[in-house]
């Protein structure tokens, strides 16, 4: 059985595993959002950053990629993703149904935000998000890099995201 992983943020440009196949994919019922405070990878406890998460919103959808791991790498890829994505328990690992660009449905692992976790910050305005992203730096580098890489890869894939594009432009104006 093929392990599929839903990429919607940094997994688009830094999956961290050898991708055997990728397909455009849509996840219904969730939206891509900078709704997770980052105290490890893109910020610190003193100056938190923001990272993308899948936020459950009825009637919404998120476009991204279905990424297939090589069958012989399944256990290693799952262990890697769990170490990377579940570092603070703000994400929940879920099996979700993705609608692919070919019209078929695949079951994939996705990391969605726990709305009851203290790192859930869906109440922030876009301007507040921009102010945070422009200044935060964490263990994996500047928060700006995370935003700009994601926006660039979404554009290359032909996936429009008006909020992320607005954030990218605003953060460029704010960043030193």
UniProtKB/TrEMBL annotation:
Keyword Cell inner membrane appears in the UniProt entry: no
Top-rank EC class of the record's enzyme: lyase
Keyword Membrane applies: no
Top-rank taxon: Bacteria
Coiled-coil features, chain-numbered ranges: none
GO cellular component: cytoplasm
Keyword annotations: Lyase, Transferase
Protein species of origin: Roseivivax halodurans JCM 10272
Any one GO molecular-function label of the UniProt entry: transferase activity
GO annotation terms (biological process): glutathione catabolic process
Alphabetized Pfam families for the sequence: ChaC
Name under which the protein is recorded: glutathione-specific gamma-glutamylcyclotransferase
EC number(s) given by UniProt: 4.3.2.7
């Amino acid at each position: 059985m093929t392990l599929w992983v839903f990429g919607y943020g940094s997994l688009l440009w830094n999956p961290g595993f050898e991708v055997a196949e990728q397909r455009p994919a849509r996840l219904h019922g969730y939206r891509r959002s900078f709704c997770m405070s980052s105290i490890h990878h893109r910020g610190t406890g003193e100056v938190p950053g923001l990272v993308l998460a899948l936020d459950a919103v009825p009637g919404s959808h998120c476009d991204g990629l279905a990424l297939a791991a090589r069958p012989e790498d399944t256990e290693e890829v799952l262990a890697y993703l769990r170490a990377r994505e579940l570092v603070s328990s703000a994400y929940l690992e879920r099996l979700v149904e993705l609608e692919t660009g070919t019209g078929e449905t695949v079951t994939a692992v996705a990391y969605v935000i726990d709305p009851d976790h203290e790192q859930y910050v869906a109440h922030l305005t876009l301007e507040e998000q921009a102010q945070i992203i422009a200044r935060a730096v964490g263990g994996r580098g500047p928060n700006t890099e995370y935003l700009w890489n994601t926006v660039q890869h979404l554009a290359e894939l032909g996936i429009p995201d008006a909020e992320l594009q607005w954030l990218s432009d605003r953060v460029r104006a704010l960043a030193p």
